[in-house]
Amino acid sequence: MIDKARERLIFALDVDSLEEAQRWVALLHDKVGVFKVGKQLFTRCGPQVVRMIRDGGGEVFLDLKYHDIPNTVAMAALEACRLGVKMFNVHALGGADMMRATVARVDEQYPRGSAGRPLLLAVTILTSSTDQTLLELGIDRPVTEMVPRLARLAADAGFDGVVASPREVEAIRAVCGPDFAIVTPGVRPAFAAVDDQKRVTTPADALAAGSDYLVIGRPISAAAEPQLAAGKILQEMAAALDAT
Ligand SMILES: O=C(O)c1cc(=O)[nH]c(=O)n1[C@@H]1O[C@H](COP(=O)(O)O)[C@@H](O)[C@H]1O
Protein backbone atom coordinates (compact mmCIF):
# COMPACT_ATOMS: atom_id res chain seq x y z
CA MET A 1 0.00 0.00 0.00
CA ILE A 2 2.91 2.34 0.65
CA ASP A 3 3.77 2.26 -3.07
CA LYS A 4 0.18 3.09 -4.02
CA ALA A 5 0.16 5.93 -1.49
CA ARG A 6 3.47 7.25 -2.86
CA GLU A 7 2.09 7.40 -6.41
CA ARG A 8 -0.75 9.55 -5.13
CA LEU A 9 1.29 12.00 -3.09
CA ILE A 10 2.23 15.22 -4.87
CA PHE A 11 4.77 17.47 -3.16
CA ALA A 12 4.47 21.21 -3.88
CA LEU A 13 7.99 22.36 -4.75
CA ASP A 14 7.32 25.95 -3.71
CA VAL A 15 10.97 27.02 -3.63
CA ASP A 16 13.03 29.62 -5.45
CA SER A 17 16.02 27.90 -7.02
CA LEU A 18 17.01 24.83 -9.00
CA GLU A 19 19.45 23.78 -6.27
CA GLU A 20 16.77 23.97 -3.61
CA ALA A 21 14.37 22.00 -5.81
CA GLN A 22 17.08 19.39 -6.42
CA ARG A 23 17.63 19.08 -2.69
CA TRP A 24 13.93 18.43 -2.04
CA VAL A 25 13.62 15.93 -4.87
CA ALA A 26 16.62 13.98 -3.57
CA LEU A 27 15.24 14.09 -0.01
CA LEU A 28 11.71 13.01 -0.85
CA HIS A 29 11.88 10.89 -4.00
CA ASP A 30 11.28 7.63 -2.11
CA LYS A 31 8.13 9.07 -0.51
CA VAL A 32 6.68 11.24 -3.28
CA GLY A 33 5.58 10.10 -6.75
CA VAL A 34 4.88 13.50 -8.29
CA PHE A 35 6.56 16.88 -7.80
CA LYS A 36 4.52 20.00 -8.42
CA VAL A 37 6.27 22.86 -10.17
CA GLY A 38 4.34 26.09 -9.72
CA LYS A 39 4.61 29.72 -10.70
CA GLN A 40 7.46 30.65 -8.37
CA LEU A 41 9.85 27.87 -9.36
CA PHE A 42 8.95 27.86 -13.05
CA THR A 43 9.33 31.64 -13.31
CA ARG A 44 12.75 31.34 -11.72
CA CYS A 45 14.07 28.20 -13.45
CA GLY A 46 11.91 27.44 -16.48
CA PRO A 47 11.79 24.05 -18.22
CA GLN A 48 15.14 22.91 -16.81
CA VAL A 49 13.48 22.18 -13.49
CA VAL A 50 11.02 19.85 -15.21
CA ARG A 51 13.91 18.08 -16.92
CA MET A 52 15.80 17.77 -13.63
CA ILE A 53 12.84 16.04 -11.96
CA ARG A 54 12.17 13.74 -14.91
CA ASP A 55 15.84 12.81 -15.28
CA GLY A 56 15.75 11.69 -11.64
CA GLY A 57 12.76 9.44 -12.35
CA GLY A 58 10.09 11.73 -10.86
CA GLU A 59 6.80 12.77 -12.43
CA VAL A 60 5.80 16.43 -12.76
CA PHE A 61 2.57 18.32 -12.17
CA LEU A 62 3.02 21.65 -13.98
CA ASP A 63 0.87 24.03 -11.97
CA LEU A 64 0.79 27.26 -13.97
CA LYS A 65 -3.02 27.62 -13.83
CA TYR A 66 -3.40 29.02 -17.33
CA HIS A 67 -6.24 31.55 -17.65
CA ASP A 68 -6.33 33.56 -20.88
CA ILE A 69 -8.08 33.73 -24.25
CA PRO A 70 -8.70 30.30 -25.80
CA ASN A 71 -5.89 30.38 -28.39
CA THR A 72 -3.27 31.52 -25.88
CA VAL A 73 -4.15 28.81 -23.37
CA ALA A 74 -4.35 26.13 -26.05
CA MET A 75 -0.86 27.00 -27.31
CA ALA A 76 0.58 27.13 -23.79
CA ALA A 77 -1.01 23.76 -23.07
CA LEU A 78 0.75 22.28 -26.07
CA GLU A 79 4.07 23.49 -24.70
CA ALA A 80 3.22 21.89 -21.36
CA CYS A 81 2.65 18.59 -23.19
CA ARG A 82 6.00 18.94 -24.96
CA LEU A 83 7.75 19.21 -21.60
CA GLY A 84 6.63 15.66 -20.80
CA VAL A 85 4.69 16.47 -17.64
CA LYS A 86 2.25 14.02 -16.07
CA MET A 87 -0.43 16.67 -15.55
CA PHE A 88 -0.99 20.41 -15.92
CA ASN A 89 -3.81 22.79 -15.08
CA VAL A 90 -5.86 25.72 -16.33
CA HIS A 91 -8.49 27.77 -14.46
CA ALA A 92 -12.01 26.49 -15.18
CA LEU A 93 -13.12 30.10 -14.68
CA GLY A 94 -11.41 30.79 -18.04
CA GLY A 95 -14.56 29.26 -19.49
CA ALA A 96 -15.83 26.44 -21.68
CA ASP A 97 -14.48 27.86 -24.97
CA MET A 98 -10.99 28.12 -23.46
CA MET A 99 -11.11 24.54 -22.20
CA ARG A 100 -12.55 23.16 -25.46
CA ALA A 101 -9.87 24.93 -27.52
CA THR A 102 -7.21 23.46 -25.22
CA VAL A 103 -8.54 19.93 -25.57
CA ALA A 104 -8.83 20.28 -29.36
CA ARG A 105 -5.24 21.48 -29.71
CA VAL A 106 -3.84 18.79 -27.42
CA ASP A 107 -5.91 16.10 -29.18
CA GLU A 108 -4.26 16.98 -32.52
CA GLN A 109 -0.73 16.26 -31.29
CA TYR A 110 -1.32 13.93 -28.36
CA PRO A 111 -4.40 11.82 -29.12
CA ARG A 112 -6.32 10.44 -26.17
CA GLY A 113 -4.68 7.27 -24.91
CA SER A 114 -1.35 8.00 -26.60
CA ALA A 115 1.89 7.82 -24.66
CA GLY A 116 3.01 11.20 -23.39
CA ARG A 117 -0.43 12.75 -23.15
CA PRO A 118 -0.70 14.48 -19.77
CA LEU A 119 -3.81 14.73 -17.63
CA LEU A 120 -5.63 17.98 -18.42
CA LEU A 121 -6.87 19.44 -15.13
CA ALA A 122 -9.09 22.43 -14.42
CA VAL A 123 -8.83 24.34 -11.15
CA THR A 124 -12.37 24.85 -9.82
CA ILE A 125 -12.41 27.26 -6.87
CA LEU A 126 -9.07 27.76 -5.13
CA THR A 127 -8.80 26.06 -1.74
CA SER A 128 -7.91 29.43 -0.21
CA SER A 129 -11.33 30.83 -1.25
CA THR A 130 -14.60 30.98 0.68
CA ASP A 131 -18.18 32.02 -0.13
CA GLN A 132 -17.12 35.54 0.89
CA THR A 133 -14.30 35.52 -1.70
CA LEU A 134 -16.86 34.64 -4.36
CA LEU A 135 -19.30 37.31 -3.17
CA GLU A 136 -16.57 39.93 -3.49
CA LEU A 137 -16.16 38.81 -7.12
CA GLY A 138 -19.88 39.18 -7.76
CA ILE A 139 -20.57 35.43 -7.65
CA ASP A 140 -23.47 34.90 -5.27
CA ARG A 141 -23.46 31.11 -5.36
CA PRO A 142 -21.67 29.16 -2.63
CA VAL A 143 -18.43 27.27 -3.15
CA THR A 144 -20.32 23.99 -2.67
CA GLU A 145 -22.41 24.80 -5.75
CA MET A 146 -19.68 26.41 -7.86
CA VAL A 147 -17.18 23.56 -7.57
CA PRO A 148 -19.35 20.76 -9.04
CA ARG A 149 -20.68 23.21 -11.61
CA LEU A 150 -17.17 24.07 -12.84
CA ALA A 151 -16.14 20.41 -12.67
CA ARG A 152 -19.04 19.48 -14.95
CA LEU A 153 -18.07 22.30 -17.33
CA ALA A 154 -14.52 20.93 -17.47
CA ALA A 155 -15.70 17.35 -17.98
CA ASP A 156 -18.05 18.44 -20.79
CA ALA A 157 -15.13 20.28 -22.46
CA GLY A 158 -13.16 17.01 -22.46
CA PHE A 159 -10.89 17.62 -19.48
CA ASP A 160 -9.56 14.62 -17.56
CA GLY A 161 -10.09 16.01 -14.09
CA VAL A 162 -10.11 18.93 -11.69
CA VAL A 163 -8.23 20.49 -8.80
CA ALA A 164 -10.52 21.11 -5.81
CA SER A 165 -10.68 20.83 -2.05
CA PRO A 166 -11.10 17.30 -0.70
CA ARG A 167 -14.29 18.60 0.91
CA GLU A 168 -15.93 18.73 -2.51
CA VAL A 169 -14.87 15.33 -3.84
CA GLU A 170 -18.23 13.69 -3.22
CA ALA A 171 -20.16 16.45 -5.01
CA ILE A 172 -17.74 16.27 -7.98
CA ARG A 173 -18.01 12.48 -8.22
CA ALA A 174 -21.81 12.80 -8.24
CA VAL A 175 -21.72 14.91 -11.41
CA CYS A 176 -18.53 13.70 -13.16
CA GLY A 177 -18.43 9.99 -12.32
CA PRO A 178 -15.80 7.62 -10.95
CA ASP A 179 -13.19 7.96 -13.72
CA PHE A 180 -12.77 11.73 -13.50
CA ALA A 181 -9.43 12.60 -11.84
CA ILE A 182 -9.69 14.67 -8.67
CA VAL A 183 -6.51 16.32 -7.40
CA THR A 184 -6.80 17.89 -3.97
CA PRO A 185 -4.60 20.49 -2.32
CA GLY A 186 -5.98 21.88 0.96
CA VAL A 187 -4.75 18.77 2.78
CA ARG A 188 -3.55 19.10 6.34
CA PRO A 189 -2.41 16.28 8.59
CA ALA A 190 -3.33 16.78 12.26
CA PHE A 191 0.23 17.87 13.12
CA ALA A 192 0.41 20.76 10.61
CA ALA A 193 -0.74 24.38 10.53
CA VAL A 194 -3.59 25.32 8.17
CA ASP A 195 -1.70 28.39 6.80
CA ASP A 196 -3.70 30.27 4.14
CA GLN A 197 -5.81 27.27 3.17
CA LYS A 198 -9.52 27.58 3.98
CA ARG A 199 -11.18 24.35 2.88
CA VAL A 200 -9.05 21.51 4.29
CA THR A 201 -9.26 17.89 5.39
CA THR A 202 -6.72 15.36 6.64
CA PRO A 203 -4.95 13.07 4.15
CA ALA A 204 -7.01 10.11 5.38
CA ASP A 205 -10.30 11.95 4.94
CA ALA A 206 -9.29 13.14 1.45
CA LEU A 207 -8.61 9.58 0.31
CA ALA A 208 -11.71 8.22 2.03
CA ALA A 209 -13.75 10.80 0.13
CA GLY A 210 -12.27 9.48 -3.14
CA SER A 211 -9.50 11.94 -3.98
CA ASP A 212 -7.01 10.53 -6.53
CA TYR A 213 -3.99 12.69 -5.71
CA LEU A 214 -3.12 14.79 -2.65
CA VAL A 215 -1.05 17.96 -3.10
CA ILE A 216 0.92 18.75 0.04
CA GLY A 217 3.57 21.41 0.51
CA ARG A 218 4.17 23.21 3.80
CA PRO A 219 3.13 20.37 6.12
CA ILE A 220 6.28 18.69 4.79
CA SER A 221 8.54 21.58 3.82
CA ALA A 222 7.97 23.57 7.02
CA ALA A 223 8.26 20.55 9.31
CA ALA A 224 11.27 20.32 11.60
CA GLU A 225 11.97 16.92 10.05
CA PRO A 226 10.50 16.91 6.54
CA GLN A 227 11.30 13.26 5.78
CA LEU A 228 9.59 12.20 8.98
CA ALA A 229 6.55 14.35 8.17
CA ALA A 230 6.33 12.89 4.65
CA GLY A 231 6.66 9.39 6.11
CA LYS A 232 3.81 10.03 8.56
CA ILE A 233 1.60 11.34 5.77
CA LEU A 234 2.42 8.31 3.64
CA GLN A 235 1.52 5.96 6.52
CA GLU A 236 -1.77 7.77 7.03
CA MET A 237 -2.51 7.53 3.30
CA ALA A 238 -1.61 3.83 3.13
CA ALA A 239 -3.88 3.06 6.10
CA ALA A 240 -6.73 4.98 4.48
CA LEU A 241 -6.23 3.14 1.17
CA ASP A 242 -6.19 -0.17 3.05
CA ALA A 243 -9.53 0.70 4.61
CA THR A 244 -11.25 1.47 1.28
O1 LIG B 1 -3.51 24.01 -8.40
C1 LIG B 1 -3.00 23.85 -7.27
O2 LIG B 1 -2.08 23.08 -7.10
C2 LIG B 1 -3.64 24.52 -6.12
C3 LIG B 1 -4.99 24.80 -6.25
C4 LIG B 1 -5.73 25.23 -5.13
O3 LIG B 1 -6.94 25.42 -5.20
N1 LIG B 1 -5.07 25.39 -3.95
C5 LIG B 1 -3.72 25.16 -3.81
O4 LIG B 1 -3.21 25.31 -2.69
N2 LIG B 1 -2.98 24.78 -4.91
C6 LIG B 1 -1.52 24.63 -4.77
O5 LIG B 1 -1.26 23.55 -3.87
C7 LIG B 1 -0.14 23.86 -3.04
C8 LIG B 1 -0.55 23.72 -1.59
O6 LIG B 1 0.56 23.92 -0.78
P1 LIG B 1 0.47 23.86 0.82
O7 LIG B 1 -0.67 24.76 1.22
O8 LIG B 1 1.81 24.36 1.26
O9 LIG B 1 0.20 22.42 1.16
C9 LIG B 1 0.34 25.25 -3.42
O10 LIG B 1 1.49 25.10 -4.24
C10 LIG B 1 -0.79 25.86 -4.22
O11 LIG B 1 -0.33 26.66 -5.27
TrEMBL record:
Enzyme Commission number(s) of this protein: 4.1.1.23
Enzyme class: lyase
Keyword Lyase found: yes
Limits of the Orotidine 5'-phosphate decarboxylase domain: 8-233
Keywords per UniProt: Decarboxylase, Lyase, Pyrimidine biosynthesis
A GO biological process held by the record: 'de novo' UMP biosynthetic process
SMART domains registered for this protein in UniProt: OMPdecase (SM00934)
GO cellular component: cytosol
Free-text function comment from the UniProt entry: Catalyzes the decarboxylation of orotidine 5'-monophosphate (OMP) to uridine 5'-monophosphate (UMP).
Record-given protein name: Orotidine 5'-phosphate decarboxylase
Organism: Geothermobacter hydrogeniphilus
